[in-house]
Every structure is written in structure tokens, then in C-alpha cells.
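Figure 3 (text version): C-alpha cells given as input.
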């Protein structure tokens, strides 16, 4: 049986509730859903700007991946949660730029996008990731 290891980094916001930033078990690394928070202050950033929120959120995910010994290149699946359907195009544009910049091998991760309510009113987007290390 492979042990589970909690992944924690100051490069992403501290978890607000009873969960880990990330968990690694064997070759799998799961990153908990991240939002557009400043890693130091925990403040929600870029109110109303889903493009900027998407980029900040993905940087938080990347920090946890790095702390767990992975990179965006190792991600096999991103799950994106959006509050408003009309934000899809702007989110998709910011997401596309980020993955292209961070996946030099050219094989882009899989992705699912779901429209849902999120845990904080300032959040327009939340993203989690599953990587194979």
C-alpha cells in the first residue's frame, strides 16, 4: 500500500477548511480546488474579472503542483468551475494561454468545465487538477 502525503506550500492560499492543498499517493497528485486568492494575504483578487481570476487561480494550482514534485505538463485533468456561463470565453482564453505557456510538450491536459455556485461571493472561477508524477 502506498502512503498518502499532504502537499502544502506558502505559494498558494492556505486551505480555509478541513482539506489539504494537495495530496500525493503513489504517482498521483490531486490539487484541491483553488480560487483567485493572493497566497500571502488570502485576499480575493480581481473582482468581476474572470480572465485575471483564471490566471491567478492557475498560478495557485501550479504552486501546489510544484510543491508536490509535478508541473503543469504532468496534469492529466483540470476541472474548472464557473459561476456565469457568459464568462466561458474569457476564462477559456486565459486558460488556453496558461496551458500553452506551461505545456511545452504540446499535449494539453484534459478539461471539464462546470457551471456552479462557489464558496465565496468574490469567486467567479475555481480550478482543481489531477497530475501523474
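Below: residues designed for each position.
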Amino acid at each position: 500500500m502506498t502512503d498518502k502525503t499532504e502537499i502544502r506550500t506558502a505559494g498558494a492560499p492556505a486551505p480555509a477548511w478541513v482539506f489539504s492543498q494537495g495530496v500525493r499517493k503513489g504517482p498521483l497528485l490531486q490539487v484541491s480546488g483553488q480560487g483567485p486568492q493572493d497566497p500571502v494575504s488570502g485576499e480575493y483578487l480581481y473582482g468581476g474579472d474572470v480572465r485575471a481570476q483564471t490566471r491567478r487561480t492557475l498560478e495557485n494550482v501550479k504552486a501546489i503542483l510544484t510543491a508536490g514534485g509535478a508541473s503543469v505538463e504532468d496534469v492529466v485533468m483540470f476541472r474548472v468551475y464557473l459561476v456565469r456561463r457568459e464568462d466561458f470565453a474569457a476564462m477559456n482564453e486565459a486558460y488556453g494561454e496558461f496551458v500553452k505557456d506551461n505545456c511545452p510538450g504540446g499535449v494539453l491536459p484534459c478539461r471539464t468545465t462546470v457551471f456552479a455556485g462557489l464558496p465565496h461571493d468574490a469567486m467567479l472561477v475555481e480550478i482543481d487538477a489531477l497530475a501523474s508524477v
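The chain has two helices and six strands.
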